[in-house]
């Protein structure tokens, strides 16, 4: 009998370690040794534990630093992501509770009067008190890993939700920085237009004076008035766009747009140097990739939960306590206990429900597996796009700066020629318009460079 009991114990121990989930293997993802759009970048040591830090401080702007801090504290988007993470953690704890016995305690107190005419009652109607207190214990033996796989899946979901929180935080930080870059670009453009209106106003007054002296025609005056009024109209358009961008920032930092403002500052942000990184790091520090991988693990574990339904469930019970109708309640004669009920349940026929649930869980795994690969491919595309944008915009800025300088000199020469009577005002208008457009194009390129820098930091998982 001792040998039989030992073999049974070993069998139960072995069964307790069973798991119906397939062996988990993340899909192989080919990682290039270097980014195509950035020469000299090579594979690096994984940085999954590295702190991302306050990457926006590389822009060197205290106003941006303050806005990022306010967004961290008051953004409703971030608060919602944090609440979802708390829900996922609570769900994981709920699943984990099934690993342990469920213990319940209770008590009863009653006073009864029995009928004197009951069977065997011999005509007497006794009255007595009945008191009981006790506890019950129920425990499901997890022979096939149903509970353990459910716990693993819930933990992975919580980890995915944590990565979602990190992704939401990074997206919020990038959105604030991007909107702030656009705001400063608009400030610079508004200042350019103000200076342009001042210059165009002087040219208009010069033309009007020449017209009054009979030197210039009315056509010249109208041309000068046209470019002046167009520049003034563009100031209003830029002001409208700036107001909308300021309101956008207010929503991002959790402020009421009516009470929020960012002071004008005519000093566009400079694009920081490209962060050093490599393709291998993406799989380690991108929170969206981490979330996709954890959901894939959870889906794999749920296959085990579905497969375990083909095997019987075994539940053990234990109860005990004290009961008395007279005398002391908490005394040895009043005690009772019971082992059981012990139940084993196996579904014999369910119309194909369990097979369908296994197929559904496998299909869900295939779906999230494809989603993981799609996320990885999208991450590499975003980095390549951002690197290319930073590199090409830097070259564009050099050429555009040269073009703006040349257009400015042309405008000055055209106005000088007009004063000297060597040309008509059409040449001045054309030169002034070209100069304004070239300078606005330069500001646009500089703003795009700032935004491309933000996009690259976001694509690399928030590292600089």
From TrEMBL:
PANTHER family linked to this entry: BLR4455 PROTEIN, OUTER MEMBRANE CATION EFFLUX PROTEIN
Transmembrane region(s): none
Family in the record: Belongs to the outer membrane factor (OMF) (TC 1.B.17) family.
Membrane topology: Lipid-anchor
Chain segments annotated as coiled-coil in the UniProt record: 221-248
PROSITE patterns the record matches: PROKAR_LIPOPROTEIN
InterPro entries in the record: MdtP/NodT-like, OMP_efflux
Secretion signal, residue range per the UniProt entry: 1-23
One Pfam short name: OEP
Protein name: RND transporter
Key words, A-Z: Coiled coil, Lipoprotein, Membrane, Palmitate, Signal, Transmembrane, Transmembrane beta strand
Protein source organism: Sphingobium fuliginis (strain ATCC 27551)
Primary subcellular site in the record, as a coarse category: membrane
UniProt key word Disulfide bond: no
Domain of life of the source: Bacteria
NCBIfam families given in the database record: outer_NodT
Upper taxonomic lineage: Bacteria, Pseudomonadati, Pseudomonadota, Alphaproteobacteria, Sphingomonadales
Location within or outside the cell: Cell membrane
């Amino acid at each position: 009998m001792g040998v039989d009991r030992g073999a049974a114990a070993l069998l139960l121990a072995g069964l307790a370690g069973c798991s119906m989930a397939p062996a988990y293997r993340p899909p192989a993802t080919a990682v290039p040794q270097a980014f195509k759009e950035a020469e000299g970048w090579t594979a690096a040591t994984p940085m999954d534990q590295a702190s991302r830090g306050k990457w926006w401080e590389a822009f060197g702007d205290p106003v941006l630093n303050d806005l990022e801090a306010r967004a961290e504290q008051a953004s409703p988007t971030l608060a919602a992501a944090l609440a979802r993470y708390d829900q996922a953690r609570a769900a994981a704890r709920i699943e984990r509770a099934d690993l342990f016995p469920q213990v319940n305690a209770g008590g009863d107190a009653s006073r009864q009067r029995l009928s004197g005419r009951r069977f065997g009652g011999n005509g007497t109607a006794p009255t007595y008190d009945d008191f009981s207190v006790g506890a019950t214990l129920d425990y499901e033996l997890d022979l096939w890993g149903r509970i353990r796989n459910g716990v693993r899946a819930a933990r992975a979901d919580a980890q995915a939700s944590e990565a979602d929180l990190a992704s939401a935080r990074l997206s919020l930080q990038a959105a604030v920085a991007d909107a702030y870059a656009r705001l400063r670009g608009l400030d610079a453009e508004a200042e350019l237009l103000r200076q342009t209106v001042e210059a165009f106003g002087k040219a208009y007054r010069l033309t009007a004076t020449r017209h009054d002296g009979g030197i210039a025609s009315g056509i010249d005056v109208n041309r000068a008035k046209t470019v002046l009024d167009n520049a003034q109209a563009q100031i209003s358009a830029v002001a409208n766009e700036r107001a909308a961008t300021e309101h956008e920032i207010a929503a991002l930092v959790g402020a009421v747009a009516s009470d929020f403002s960012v002071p004008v500052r005519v000093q566009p942000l400079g694009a920081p140097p490209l962060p050093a990184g490599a393709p291998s790091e993406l799989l380690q520090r991108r929170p969206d990739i981490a979330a996709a991988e954890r959901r894939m693990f959870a889906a794999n574990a749920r296959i085990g939960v579905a497969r375990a339904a083909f095997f019987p469930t075994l539940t053990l019970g234990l109860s005990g306590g004290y009961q008395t109708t007279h005398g002391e309640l908490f005394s040895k004669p009043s005690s009772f206990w019971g082992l059981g009920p012990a139940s084993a349940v196996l579904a014999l026929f369910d119309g194909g429900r369990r097979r369908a649930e296994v197929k559904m869980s496998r299909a869900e795994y295939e779906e999230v597996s494809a989603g993981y690969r799609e996320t990885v491919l999208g991450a590499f595309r975003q980095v390549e796009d951002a690197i290319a944008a930073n590199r090409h915009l830097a070259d564009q800025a050099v050429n555009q700066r040269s073009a703006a300088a040349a257009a400015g000199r042309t405008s000055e020469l055209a106005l000088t020629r007009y004063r000297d009577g060597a040309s008509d005002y059409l040449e001045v208008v054309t030169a002034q318009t070209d100069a304004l457009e070239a300078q606005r194009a330069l500001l646009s390129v500089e703003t795009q460079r700032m935004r491309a820098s933000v996009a690259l930091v976001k694509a690399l998982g928030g590292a600089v």
